[in-house]
Amino acid sequence: MFSIQGPRSIYVYSLLIGLLSGFGAYGFNWALTWTESFTFGNLMGYDPGIPTGDSNFHSTGYVSSLSPLWILFLPAFGGLLVGIVTSFFCAEAQGGGTDSLIYAFHFNEGKIQTKVPFFKVIATILTLGSGGSGGKEGPTAQIGAGFGSSLAGFLGAGARARRTLMLAGTAGGLGAIFRAPLGGAITAVEMVYQEDIESDSLVPCILSSVTAYLTYISIAGSGSLFSVQEYSLNDYRHIPLYIILGLLCYVVGYFFVKVYHNIQDVFSKLPLPNFLKPAFGGLLVGCIAFLFPEVLGTGFGLIQRMINGEVLESTSFGFSGPFFLLAVALFKVFSTSLTVGSGGSGGLLGPSFAIGGMLGAFVGSMAQVLFPELGIIIFPFLLVGMGSFFAGVARAPIAGMIMVCDMIGSYELLPPLMIVSVIAVVLSHKTSIYRNQIKNRFLSPSHHWDMNQDIMDRIRIRDHFSEFRKYAMVSENLSLTELQSNAPGIQASDFILIGAGEEYKGIVSLRKNRILPEFEDDLKNLITCGEIVQDVPSVCTNDTLGKALQILLEYDVDKLAIVEDGKCLGYLRYIDLFNAYQNEVKNKQRKSV
């Protein structure tokens, strides 16, 4: 009754996933806001602020003064609880969340364990609620992705449909929590690649994201995440300042990526039990927050306060100014890296927006001091910095621009966002905060079968191969038992069979022919490879990759013999065809530039 029967059914299920994602995002945000109200207000005595779009959520008053001991030790306590959850119940709940979604898309056919979103929500509430530095998007994206993956499993969908529904769920979670219906969809399809987008999933992602957004605002109230005053870019003299902002976003973004990855590596090798690592990371975050409480939480409240025109000053030391904003941005880099890199649970997208916003505010503030005649307003630089910084560290230029425009409910800042985001992305072309991102569709296992058949039919084997592999070529007189024992060393399951004169005989597949252990002694020397050979056509060097691929698929083998003048020269594998195809495409791209 319920099944995937084509694109239209995927569209319908994307609407359902969006509906569930919207409810899930609301429930998570309500629980997190309630937790933060208690821990930040009643324990730490620090008011991080709240975006206008989240003002309808439960909140209590804050105590009048800071409690340094709570600020110092509460992140460590939260990290300890997170470590227990991730070490004993669900290891996949640690870290940023988005990177694991990218891994599932490329390498696990879009499969996500049903328990992961549930424990991810718990771990993130513990992390952010105790003062850890991270974002909300990790759990909300995983909630939606989990709905999509689980629904695909229930429907018996194939890998391609499952990946699409997983991304649709991701888009739903992002579109709801950031109140960004288009931005959530674009981010979902752009974040899986460094230089490409998952265009096949764009329409399902849009449907899911819009549905999730409408579901979310129907409960939480309408309006954008951040409220801003009207603004238009009407002074060309500001453009050089935006270019400087783009350069600064690149430099700090590169620094962020390196610090985060290095801290990840250090904590992975740290001689501590895994459940204690987030606690140690939380203790270090507490030490930073002891001096700069502004690094606690998501940082979105600070963004709204600056948009409102509030002059931020140090809660601990009482000083303010441009360099205070720069200091907060840099310490946010370390606090986020320590929180998430140590095994805590929180997204990286949210902190990227916060860091970029601080950098933008720094440039705007400096411009006000140095060039008072320009009439600089700070908040446009803040918002442009948000989009540019995320675009650079995530290799997602379109997503960075659209997300910010959606979050403020206006596209007035799109021109400077385009300038600054392109600068940051072009300069940071070799770095990404997401380690599991793949360069483009050609390199992703999810698209190994999407190669252009016309190109395949034009590529001759001789044009890309001068010699061939021979490791898995065996004699027709070899016994099946001997072949089985030799297979692990050769690391092969299909073998090219040759005669005494190196003539090609066919292919023997251990996937299809294997002596069971209980019969091995009786049949040890009775069955030879020549007796179970599969008659698979060969190709010559003048044949095309298209013909080679067709034979591999039709006969269900992973190797194909290359025969010239009656002798077997070697064989080709799937990966050899893919590499040749990719090189051909790259050559054509270079020539067309």
- What would you say the CATH architecture of the largest domain is? Orthogonal Bundle
Number of domains: 2
Distance between the termini: 50 Å
Q: What profile does the largest beta sheet have?
A: 3 strands, mixed
The overall pLDDT, averaged over residues, is 87
User: So what's the CATH class of the largest domain?
Assistant: Mainly Alpha
GO molecular function: chloride channel activity
InterPro entries: CBS_dom, CBS_dom_sf, Cl-channel_core, ClC, ClC-type_chloride_channel
GO cellular component, one term: chloride channel complex
Main location: membrane
Description:
This protein is mainly alpha-helical. It has 2 domains: 7-437, Clc chloride channel, CATH 1.10.3080; 450-592, CBS-domain (Roll). It contains 22 helices and 5 strands. The strands form 2 sheets. A 3-stranded mixed sheet has the order 1-2-3, with no helix packed on it. The longest helix has 38 residues, at 7-44. The mean pLDDT is 87. One of its GO terms (molecular function) is chloride channel activity. This is Chloride channel protein. Keywords: CBS domain, Chloride, Chloride channel, Ion channel, Ion transport, Membrane, Transmembrane, Transmembrane helix, Transport.
